[in-house]
Amino acid sequence: MTALLGIDIGTTATKAVVFDVEAGIVGTGVRPCDLQSPHPGWAEEDPAQWWNNVVELIQEAAGARHIGAVGVSGMVPCVVLVDRNGDVLRPSIQQNDSRAIREIGELRERFPDDEIVTRTGSPITQQSIAPTLLWIQRNEPEVWSQVRWIMGSYDFITYRLTGTPTIERNWALESGLYDLNTGEWAPDILEEANVDQRLLPPINDPSTVVGAIGKEVARSTGLDPGTPVVAGAADHVASAFSAGAIEQGDLVVKLGGAGDILLTTDRPLVDDRLYLDFHLVPGRYLPNGCMAASGSFIRWFQRELAGSASLEQLDAEAAQSSPGASGVVALPYLLGEKTPINDPNARGAFVGLHLGHRRGDLFRAVLESVAYGFKHHLEVFTELGFAPTRIRLTDGGSTSSVWTQIIADVLERPVEPIAFTGGSAFGVAFAAGVGTGAIDDWTAITGMLESSPCIEPDPDPRYQEAYQIYRELYPTLKEVFT
């Protein structure tokens, strides 16, 4: 039997899955991560916490099993800066951080959207790496002077496991520093961002073996020295794959800390309202959108406005409200917003409140706001001629019967929650199996899925009315936000 280890560096938690090719998932573990926002719009985490979580999780999930290969996934494209000794220089700057507003504006003037989207697959936004690196140079020059490697979240963990600096191709693509047409770093964009290309590790595909577990790491984790480690994958790409996004038209909605919506295509789809990723399966693509705060909006509401109420209690209260949240409409832009509006200055809001509203109405408005964001993306896909043929829901939010029904109703399409398969960690463990020859065919994933009963939509005109208000709120409030 071949056991494969997948690790996921998520925004709110670090997860591990041990997958046996014959027996399925045989080990799991999870540890929380702390997202810090020391200033408005900032989003940072401590990579040392990720590593400590990883060491504990490997021992917990793997136990005494022999692990044949390892893969790591993670949020993308966050920034981790490492010095010559391999030490982290500052907290990570997360992909939903919006501090580099000035730098985004400057680079947009230098590289107009119509040019940059064609070359890199995405516009210059708060997710782009070049503005973030410029901000560090200007505001933390003592940090910048010590940088040896610029990495992403999962690239950093892969580096700690193997000692080999690497960048997975989807981090490169989403960074905005990569030329989609040449398949290499873009020298002129690097020059404009004042970044020496030697600070960027070599680019590798997800299933490429990039190194092996060293003796010191073996002692701390229990893994065998020499265990191969692959380059890994962006969390939303690995999660979409593990939810069965294989064929053209397969759409996955990922209900994590951020909200991702990914469509499988057989050719690139480039539009300034979307991101573009490479699929785990060679020759396929994942045009997608990302809402900066979906699950994070829910957790903020629970922490700041709901006292000690559990999510189950809040769901029950939301179920007592009515479609359209009894007239309350929320904007989920608590960390600015990525796609499709690409505005780091955007902010959250509740609109339509009166004294008769209750906590359940507000929480339902939160759930509905995320569903409206997904509907907005679905309209973009459809406008561009890429209508989905099947919609699957994955990650933590897919276990909420209230939220999943709201999503089906708002999208007016059947949705299929995927029962726990390990999500991103499972997807990258599968990639490790393909990369080492333990798994012969990417399509073998389809026989390993366990889905929950399909949720049929129950459309309600109140959703349509609230959605129109949702779409009008951002343009109306945009001047207030800035």
Walk me through this protein's architecture.
The strands form eight sheets. A six-stranded mixed β-sheet has the order 18-19-17-16-22-23, sandwiched between helices. Strands 3-2-1-5-15 form a five-stranded mixed β-sheet. Strands 4-7 form a two-stranded antiparallel ribbon. It has 482 residues and is an alpha/beta fold. The chain has helices at 47-62, 101-110, 113-120, 129-139, 141-144, 153-162, 169-175, 187-192, 215-221, 235-242, 295-305, 311-320, 359-383, 401-411, 423-436, 461-481, and strands at residues 3-9, 13-20, 24-32, 44-45, 67-74, 80-82, 92-93, 149-151, 167-168, 178-179, 184-185, 203-204, 209-212, 228-230, 233-234, 250-255, 259-263, 275-278, 285-291, 329-331, 349-351, 390-394, 416-417. The protein is built from 16 helices and 23 strands. The longest helix is centred in the C-terminal third of the chain and has 25 residues, at 359-383. A hairpin with a 4-residue loop joins β10 (178-179) and β11 (184-185). The chain has two domains: 3-235, ATPase, nucleotide binding domain (Nucleotidyltransferase, domain 5); 245-417 and 452-482, Nucleotidyltransferase, domain 5 (2-Layer Sandwich), CATH 3.30.420.
Output the CATH topology of the largest domain.
Answer: Nucleotidyltransferase, domain 5
The largest sheet has its strands arranged as: 18-19-17-16-22-23
Mean pLDDT: 94
What is the number of helical segments per DSSP (H or I, 4+ residues)? 16
**Number of separate structural domains:** 2
Question: In percent, how helical is the residue content?
Answer: 25-40%
Rg measurement, Å = 21 Å
Spatial separation of the terminal alpha carbons: 58 Å
Uncertain runs are none
